[in-house]
Amino acid sequence: MSTDTTEATERQTRLVGLAARDVVKTFSVKGKENLVLDTINLEIPKGEFVSVIGPSGCGKSTLLRIFADLIPVTSGTAVVDGISPQLARADRRLGVVFQQANLMPWRSVLRNVGLPLEVEGRGKVARDATSRELLELVGLAGYEKHLPRQLSGGMQQRVAIARALSTEPDVLLMDEPFGALDEITRERLNQELLSIWGRLRPTVLFITHSIPEAVFLSSRVVVMGARPGRIVDVVDVDLPYPRDPGARTDPAFHAAESRIRALLATAGGH
Q1: Domain range annotation of the chain
Q2: Cα(267)–Cα(74) distance, rounded to whole angstroms?
Q3: pLDDT tens digit string along 130-173?
């Protein structure tokens, strides 16, 4: 490979927020290898918001966990912010939010948000100041002293998002963070999440089972087929940002929804 080609490749890699290159993942169960992800190729530029949708068990969460450095690939390569998931996690470039908020019940909201900063070794004054800023960002100013049990499910998830943002990650990985919430709360948090993303612009990979949610949030929606997980297609969402609830009535919104539904029907369900 020439020097020019090598430099061009390195420049392109630096512009990548997330990439899966020929990623294969198998799990061994009772001595038998089960193929979960089958040759996944996906590239998400820095700062893009992309959702992944597909039937239960298709490997959506497995793909996210590979990017989060929670499980290794069997073969292929995963790239996070231009480097390996292991290095990205060690460098605090990753924020992860799961379906359950996983807050520490004995810590106040403020101390839950500041936990990653405490682990980093930052002083109390600095981490409290950052935590307060983030709580204001997610609409929870005034709840600093509350315990998680005193919050609704939606509020707990906002605390989890604030905690994930505390280290100023370049990449935000979200695994069905609103899946357990009622539709009204879910739509409100969709709007708040887009507002946060618009201000901070991390690269976002968002796992969901909701077609309207995927379309509303994303610039592109990755549709996966039934196990072994594979990418069936990537649907562009032709709606400008910023988006408000009126976007859900736009013909482009319904066109993307219809396309995704058709692909899921062909791919083996939803």
Answers
A1: 34-93+169-270, 103-168
A2: 24
A3: 999 999 999 999 999 999 999 999 999 999 999 999 999 999 99
Nearest CA-CA partner of 19 in 57, 46, 53, 56: 46
Question: In this structure, which amino acid lies at residue 98?
Answer: F
Which segments within 160-260 are labelled E, that is strand?
171-175, 203-207, 220-225, 230-236
* Cα–Cα distance for residue pair 60/54, rounded to 1 Å: 7
Preceding peptide of 212 cis, ω within 30°: no
| CATH placement of domain 34-93+169-270 | 3.40.50.300
Provide the whole-model pTM: 0.90
What order of strands is seen across the sheet that includes strand 32-45? Answer: 32-45, 16-29, 75-80
Residues shown for the chain:
270
Strand partners, 78: 20
Q: Model confidence over 89-105: pLDDT tens digits?
A: 999 999 999 989 999 99
Measure the CA–CA gap between 153 and 8, rounded to whole angstroms.
46
Beta-carbon contacts of residue 11 (< 8 Å; ≥ 6 apart)? none
Sign of the alpha-carbon torsion through 103, 107, 110, 114? negative
Query: Any idea what the Cα angle at residue 50 is, between residues 48 and 54, rounded to 5°?
Result: 170
